[in-house]
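Retro notes - structure team

What went well: the batch runner handled both jobs without manual restarts.
What didn't: labels got mixed up in the shared folder, which is why I'm recording both outputs here explicitly, each with its sequence directly above its tokens.

Job 1
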Amino acid sequence: MLSKRPDGFHEIDTGILEIPFYDILEITKSDKFEFIQSGIGVDGSVEDNLCTRAFKLLKRYYDISNVRIHLRKQIPIGAGLGGGSSDAVAVLKSLIQLLELDIAKDELLVLSAQLGSDCPFFVDGGVQLASGRGEILKNIKADMPSCYVVLINPDISISTQEAYSMISCAKSLTSVENILSQPMNTWRNQLVNDFEKSVFEAYPAIKDIKNELYNQGAVYASLSGSGSTVFAFFKEQVELTGSLKENLIYASQLH
């Protein structure tokens, strides 16, 4: 986290990795707009949901018909995993396809940025560097050999607003891009999530998760985004034990 900007956002330098961990969206044409949500409960009104906001944003610029959106939420809320943002972009992409809209990728990126700072990432996904407030993206190849990734979530919800209110900005001497180009076993002492200091102070259980992941052999572990999820890379598939096993929400081989 480099600094706070005059527009109220923060200047960031970060890396984002897409993994196949999804919510489920079903969108069909309808006589009236309807949003239905199932699975993990989501606080707030239908109007505030990012899926609804994505539909209304597109309707503002295009004369589109109404649709019925069913979101089955599977990604935990306030987990630092970009679940809501990825859903919003998935709605835009699905509407473009369903309604056969002529919208180029550059315009989709602009629309996505109006929904959230991290939304443009989900237009292409993959592995990207994000700077500015998150909307300036660059595709990269991180030094990530085949490894095993796990996500541990302690059933704590941390709002993005809460996380940013606690953070202290600090400039790193080494860019994230340079760090990610180095072997993964060098990341532990160089690749630091600036949210960790304040989040770990407020929620010691999350700090304990990161420490235990290293105790169980992780090559690299970190808070994901603004939390509360902690992710870790292992050289090979691992059978976690204790509280890590209890709070495991995702595990997969990455190639």
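Job 2
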Amino acid sequence: MLLRIASLIASGIASYASVSSTSQLWGSTLAHAPSRKIALTFDDGPNSDNTLRLLDVLAEAQVSATFFVIGRWSREQGDVLRSIASAGHRIGNHTDTHPNLFWCSRSRTKQELTRCQSAVEDVTGSAVTLFRPPFGFRRPDTLRIARDQGLTPILWNVKCFDWKKTTAESVYGHVQRGILRNQRRDRGAIILLHDGGDRALGADRSHTIAAVRRLLAEYERERFVAL
């Protein structure tokens, strides 16, 4: 009985370390922005009109963000990717096809990161140094492989559920509560948002764009940092 309990506890700890965006058990990741700062991050693009509209909103506020892009979309949406880079935003590696890396072999993980890296660098001509695992799922090998490729793992501490069908008000509510929660702990917020979708191009992210516009209007520009 004691062995079974110990096994269940160990399994629970391992699961938490693999899926929690702030856990450091499997290795160091960046999950918090500097104290009281706000870092906007966007996953699953580039995504045609949605990404370009978002770039306009960020430009109006003179705020820089970080875009974690999928390799296969980067090859199809090279002009949009170039627009992200030309606007001065950071670009990170979000794998080539957005698999759950927890279940991927070492060779598949290396291939996913390498192919995304090549896609971005071929289009922008600049090296990529940031990495975000799809869904935040990882294991120790995942982070070691990323670091071996010169990539710093970036997670988040504010999740907004904007990949689902939702409203701008709901997305903004998650953002605001997350910022306040981290402020109470004297931590900055890394906000997980999406300008695209992992399954297909053309995902509607109008609710995200509207929520970001409101966020930028209500917080001082100096509060925002790029990773």
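One thing worth noting from job 2: The first strand starts at residue 38 and ends at 45.
We'll revisit the folder naming next retro.
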